[in-house]
């Protein structure tokens, strides 16, 4: 993680680093695709920013587009939580 320390010596993550330097693989994919599709950044720039080769990033774009066709978006990056408390199976 990208931590800095404030006067109280407690670790603090810079908010921009959370988005620009993701640690989790799925978060990294999400931010890279967002940069490509929303910010219209060139594939080469996105690949370099997030540590992908250009070829691996374009493969990621292709896989994402295929997922769009299958309408499986709700489970690509985010988990849908059920409302309410779990029901006991007794």
Report on the structure:
- The protein has 4 helices and 2 strands.
- It has a two-stranded antiparallel sheet.
- It has a single domain (3-75), classed as Arc Repressor Mutant, subunit A.
- It starts with a strand and ends in a 20-residue tail after the last helix.
- It has helices at 15-20, 25-37, 43-50, 54-70, and strands at residues 3-5, 11-13.
- α3 (43-50) packs across α4.
- The mean pLDDT is 82.
- The protein is mainly alpha-helical.
| Number of H/I helices | 4
Mean pLDDT comes to: 82
Q: Total strand count, please?
A: 2
Under CATH, the topology is which? Answer: Arc Repressor Mutant, subunit A
> What is the level-2 CATH architecture name?
Orthogonal Bundle
